[in-house]
Every structure is written in C-alpha cells, then in structure tokens.
Amino acid sequence: MERTALICRSIGNKGSVYSLSALHRADNGSEDRYESLIRPALLPEGKVKGLTVPAEELEDAPGIREVWEEVRGWLTHSLVLVDGNSLALFARDLESSGAYLPAFFYLNLKAPEKDFGVEAESLPDPLETLDGAFIRVRKGCPDWETRIGMLKSENQPPEKPAYVFLDCETADASGQICAIGLVYDPPEGKPEEYYTLVNPERPMQAENLAIHGITDEMVKDAPTFPEIWPKLQKYLEGSVLVAHSALSADLFFLKSTMGRYGLSFGEVRYLCTCRAAQKMLPEMENHRLDTLCEHFGIPLDHHNALSDAKGCRELYYRLAALGDVGRFEGRYKLEGQKRSFIPRRTKKAVEIPAELYAEGVIPEKTGVFVLTGDFARCEREEAEEKIKEAGGTVKSSVTKAVQYVVVGAKGSDRWSKGSYGAKIAKAQAMGVPVLREEALWEAIGK
To answer: At residue 237, does pLDDT exceed 70?
Structure first.
C-alpha cells in the first residue's frame, strides 16, 4: 500500500509548524524522503517549548506553501501515517496561508499497543518507527482499515483574486517614479491597461535616462504622483500585486515615492515573478525579465513601463502553467515600514566587533553568499535578489559550498554580546570570511 510517514514539529503543542519530515513508500517498493524547516507566520520571543532550532534559521526557511508543493503528491495520494496531531497542525497552517486542501486519509499510530493490540518498537529513525508500526498493525490487526480517519477542510475554495501586474520607471537612485504601467486583471471580465508618465518633480539622472529614455521635457506637464494616487489605490485595493524583482524594484519604488509625499496604503499581497522563475526554472542562464520573455516568446519593449507590465503578466501565466506560483506569495507594507513574516523586537540591535570581519577581502559577485543581520540599504530579501540578479548564489545556512558570509550594517536585535548567531559562529569555525554589507554592494555594483 502506498503510504507516507509524516512528522511535524510545532512551536508549543498547538503553535505554528516549523519543520516537516516525510518518508514515502510507493506500491512498487521505492522510497523517498523529504525534510525541511518551515518559516512560521509568527515566531514568539524568548525560549519556546519544543523549538529546537535558532530563530535565525527559521527566518531563512521556505514558507509552508513552498513545502506543501514538495509533498503534495505524497499526502494526497497515499495513506498518511502520523504519531499524533502532525497532519492536523500542518493542514491548519496551510489553510491559514490561503491554500485550499483536498481530503487526507490518515492512520494515527501514536499508541499501537493500546489502539491496535500490537507491540510498539522504537527505532533510531522516528519515520521508520511509524512505518514499522504500520507493517505490524496491518499484519496483526484484522480491522485496522476501519481505524483510518479522514481530514477534510470545511472551507470553500478561495475566490480568485484580482491581479495587478505592475512596472515602474524611475528618475533617480532614490526610486522616484517617472512612469508607471499596469495591467489590472479582474476575476471576471477583460483586463484593463493603465499607463502614464509621472512628473517626479526633480531632474532626471543620466543613468536612469540611459535606461528608459524619458527626459525632463517629456514629464514636465505630466501629473505628479499624488495626482494619480487615487486611481492607483482603486487598482491595488484587494488585488495581488505582481512585479518582476518586486522587492528590490517596483515595490521599493512605490514605497519610496509614497514616502516622499506622506502617502500610505497598508499591507498588500504581492508576488515576484523573478523569484518564482528562479525556483521553477533554475536551469536558466539568468532570470531577467527580457531573458525570460525571450525564452517564452513573449513580445517586450523593455523599459517601457506598460510593455514590461504586460510582459510580466504573460510570464506569470506561463509560470502558473508549470506549477503552483501561489506558494511564492508574500505580504508587504506600503507605508515605509519593514516587510517581515516574523515580528521584529524593539530592543537595540547589536553590532559584531570589527575583529570578526575579514578586512580586505573583495567578494566575487558570482560567488556563494550567506546573509545575516539587518541590512541598512534594503531588506535582507531584497539584498538576496540583487545578488541573484548579479549572477551570485544565496544559501540559507553555512556549508562547505559557501564562500562569504555578509553581515547587515544594522546588526541584529537577536544577538547578544559575544553571541552573534549560528551563521557567524559556523563561518568562523569553517574559515569562511565574514564581510561587511558595504563589501557586498561594492562587489555587485548596486
């Protein structure tokens, strides 16, 4: 019988699931394993019962929707073997993330002696313990099939949201918008396109002019951002905002321009097609919008804001045809605040001593990096995207493949004097150079 042994660990007895381990055995006898940490929606401060890994590692872990994509086929097409409420907690957190779940069939093997009258046997591998218990139950308990339970969601399938595919062009390095294009894709009906030049009320920098060709003369009579903001708000309300390099580009540009005029919107759902493509098409030479559009045969007049927005829309649907892109969805606050799945503490951040840094080391931009601490120039996730755009690789933990550990200039409020996180400690033990944030920007030219 096709079966999957499942163990999930949670924060406390009923808190968010933070790790998943699975052992799948198919009808033909083949065996597959999967293990992953899971970034929880909320991570409480201080010591927590049952939490056995540093909070820093959880911040870098994949979200529950990404993990679900890896084990979906096993859990929906086999009997799930559990030792308690693992499946129920995992299903609960999945539903909270917006996923719609099918029915699961499971067998609880927490107490095989009491429930099935068969001898319990503890093996070094908890997954093997579960699978072994199932084999004994199937042989020794004639009515074991009557004990199979079914876990079924009571929620209705989520309504299809509206999508806003967005691209912005900017006047200068601060991200002040000088042109914006979008495609509003409602749940029903035809898509709606919107494009306008925007007067940034400051001179166009030469570097930006060379990219998009929008001159000061072209925008002098265009509306300012506050004048178009009411229309943008209507598009954004209740929509999923989709952009290419969303955090390091378009969402940052929106937040920067809004901050200049004292505007705010609150939290939006967003999805980055660059990040989705990196995960779904790792074999590509790079994941720039023009490269991906050429790969899929999508017409593109690159750096025309409306054309880029339309190209992003077509790319999104091409990726959606390959798999569940919804697992890459996140949340972002358009009000000048940090985006984070995990609440930040308010205590003062701690910086690491100067002697821990490898001074004079210039990293290769195509190297393998691990990031830690809070970055001054942007969010850490934005820094990761910039590294990938430059041809580098980002890892979540320090391994033999890692060449550099980069520390954000703001340090971290989770560190204490003499204790600067597992990544820095491991880098020191393995001889991996620890670099300042400034060294990263100098290397990748951002």
So the answer is: yes
E strands present in 109-225:
149-151, 162-170, 177-185, 192-197
Each residue of 10-69: pLDDT tens digit? 887 677 888 999 999 998 889 999 999 988 765 555 566 667 777 667 766 788 888 888
pLDDT tens digits, 247-306: 888 998 999 999 999 998 888 889 999 989 988 998 888 889 999 999 999 999 999 999
Q: Rounded CA gap, 322 and 301, in Å? A: 25
Confidence of residue 343 (pLDDT cuts 50, 70, 90): very low
Residue 34 confidence (pLDDT): 94
In total, the chain counts a number of residues equal to: 446
From the CA atom positions of the chain, what is the Rg in Å? 25
pLDDT, tens digit, 9 for 90 and up, residues 111-164 = 999 999 988 888 899 999 999 999 999 999 999 999 999 998 766 656 788 999
Domains and CATH numbers, the chain: 3-151 (3.30.420.10), 162-334 (3.30.420.10), 354-444 (3.40.50.10190)
CA atoms of 433 and 402, how far apart (whole Å): 10
Place of tokens 């920067």: 256
What are the residues whose beta carbons fall under 8 Å from the beta carbon of 381, sequence distance 6 or more?
Answer: 247, 339
| Res. 413 pLDDT band, cuts 50 70 90 | low
Grouping H, G, I as helix, E, B as strand and the rest as coil, residue 332 is strand
353: helix, strand or coil? coil
Under 8 Å between Cβ of 69 and 97: no
Look at phi and psi of residue 255 and say left if phi exceeds 0, alpha if psi is from -120 to 50, else beta.
Answer: alpha
Distances (CA, A) of 259 to 71, 128, 165, 264, 426: 41, 55, 22, 7, 39
Output helix, strand, coil percentages for the chain, rounded to the nearest 5.
35, 20, 45
**How many whole angstroms separate alpha carbon 87 and alpha carbon 79?**
12
> 17-46 burial by CB neighbour count: b if 16+ within 10 A, else e?
bbbbbbbbbeeeeeeeeeeebbbbeebeee
Kindly report the pTM of this predicted structure.
0.54
- Cβ proximity of 166 and 305 under 8 Å: no
CB atoms within 10 A of CB 118: 19
Single out the residue of 249, 239, 232, 234 nearest to residue 269, CA to CA: 239
